[in-house]
């Protein structure tokens, strides 16, 4: 019998797989077929009654074109939405590749990286990524504001969409 914590982890993973499959507009039978599993076995997996392995998560991610490391990160973050948010951009896979390169380049010297240095580095990365998104949004809004006068009879709305009459 599973502990409460193990059951919570299984529930998180099953919720995540189902959410990704539905987001990708795939039927259970399509995913089962692509994984080479009987439909009933896949349904058991997705419902949390099957056995989760790293290989199964990786294969599921390949079939659904999602991020296997984001699926695994759901367990630590307690957020199935995180895996959905990373499905297209592969954020966690990119992070793991970067960590692999760091491991290759530093090897044993990784032990000399102090927690304060790591916290500072990762805090800067988070800030840079957040700033990038904010500037991207501001760029689009500014671009629309500046150019909307070129469309006869249109005025930009607050959300950047245009309103006005159709010109024939």
TrEMBL record:
SMART domains: HTH_XRE (SM00530). Gene3D superfamilies: lambda repressor-like DNA-binding domains (1.10.260.40). It holds the Pfam family HTH_31. Residues 17-72 form the HTH cro/C1-type domain. This is Helix-turn-helix transcriptional regulator. The lineage of its organism: Bacteria, Pseudomonadati, Pseudomonadota, Alphaproteobacteria, Sphingomonadales.
